[in-house]
Design brief:
single chain; 225 residues; alpha/beta; Zincin-like; four-stranded mixed β-sheet; 6 helices; 36% helix; flat
Length: 225
Amino acid sequence: MINVGGQWYKLKIEHKAIKNIYLRIISGNTLFVTCPLEIDDAKVIAFIRDKEKWISKHSKANRPMFITPENIFLWGRSYRLKLHSGSNKVVIADDHVAISCQDADEEKARQLFYQKANKLILEAINKYEALWLPKLKDYGYFQTPEYKVKPMKSRWGVCYTRKNQIILSSYLIHFPPICLESVYWHELLHFIVPNHSKRFNEVLRYHMPDYDKAHRILSGRSQNV
């Protein structure tokens, strides 16, 4: 899956012996990219970002695919969505998510869900912090960052080293927990390596060998979600 302009799309990439990159929208919510054999996923994603206005104009998708009138994705699992009229409340059960709000308004329900999601993400980060933060001490980082969570359309996370702050995307709630953990570790690592240099990637994968698996899920190159 990939988020473009606030909308979620499935992404299919086909490499061919061609010279240019081509983009089509199929089935209303699937981006189909054909590209030269030597083009990697990062360049395809950059190409899609450049076409954001075109995609928004021609796409029939009108809501994030991870929240529909019938279902909602939470930590990589599909739950039935039950929307009721009543006082503002979000309840997560074994097989469904129940949301109540005034007039059972879908947009209000979506806002309530992401407010709940932000709290769940922060709770998860508190657990991950105990595992990952001590690893940075070996590299000379002895502080504890400030964490914030908010909807971000084009980034899963961002690290502000001068503010000692990490911001994570609310939309990570829809993916398996390994995705949130990998984004957290990625951003945390920027406190000791500010760029995406060879050293950054070496340290990143040395401590998290499954990082690429999580990255494929977030970039839409895995069928796990």
